[in-house]
Amino acid sequence: MLKPDAVEKGHIGAILEKISASGFKIVAMKLTQMTKHDAQTFYAIHSERPFFGELVEYMTRGPIVAAILEKENAVDDFRTLIGATNPADAADGTIRKLFANSISENAIHGSDSDENAAIEGAFHFSGREIF
Ligand SMILES: Nc1ncnc2c1ncn2[C@@H]1O[C@H](COP(=O)(O)OP(=O)(O)OP(=O)(O)O)[C@@H](O)[C@H]1O
After folding, report:
1. pTM, two decimal places
2. Assigned domain for 27 exists
3. Residue 130 belongs to some domain of the structure
């Protein structure tokens, strides 16, 4: 997902360019907005964390770009491409280093396992939207 801050700042094109240039194939993509229920469900693993309310507010405040990407070793390679959760710790050239401002508003999300990628893909897309 390209998160609301990245969309607000007009970074959709630049981020998708980096993703494509890094060898990822886009097999599904849409501009959409999460409801509070969507965000609470998507980030349920963080429901006890002190920043959960702030995270739900942030993720629902405007549109996001949801996408499913394909590549060999996609999960690890995408997490390398996006960089550390806190952009202050992200390596040079990573998407979060280039486009994120803070640990809470960090521009982009990547699934952390193949299993979660399948769950999160199904969260945003029906079968006929995946190519
Ligand atoms: N300490 C924090 N304060 C505020 N927001 C946070 C903090 N830690 C994480 N977040 C927010 O919650 C999201 C999920 O946290 P997580 O630890 O799963 O990071 P991540 O796996 O790098 O990010 P994501 O799951 O969005 O790809 C972060 O991307 C960020 O938006």
Report:
1. 0.96
2. yes
3. no
Residue 102 phi/psi, 5-degree rounding, is: -155, 170
- Which CATH number is 84's domain given? 3.30.70.141
DSSP secondary structure string for all residues of 2-71: B-HHHHHTT-HHHHHHHHHHTTPEEEEEEEE---HHHHHHHTGGGTTSTTHHHHHHHHHSS-EEEEEEE-
Query: What is the total count of domains within the chain?
Result: 1
Count, residues in the chain: 131
Secondary structure (3-state) at 70:
strand
**Is 11 among the catalytic positions?**
no
Q: Beta partners for 38?
A: none
Which residue ranges have their beta carbon within 6 Å of ligand 1? 46, 51, 55, 85, 103-104, 106, 109-110, 112
* Assembly ipTM: 0.93
Q: Which tens digit of pLDDT belongs to each residue from 33-83?
A: 999 999 999 999 999 999 999 999 999 999 999 999 999 999 999 999 999
Q: Strands 64-70 and 25-32, how do they pair? A: antiparallel
Q: How far is the CA of 128 from the centre of ligand 1 (A)?
A: 30
**What does the DSSP 8-state code read for residue 103?**
S
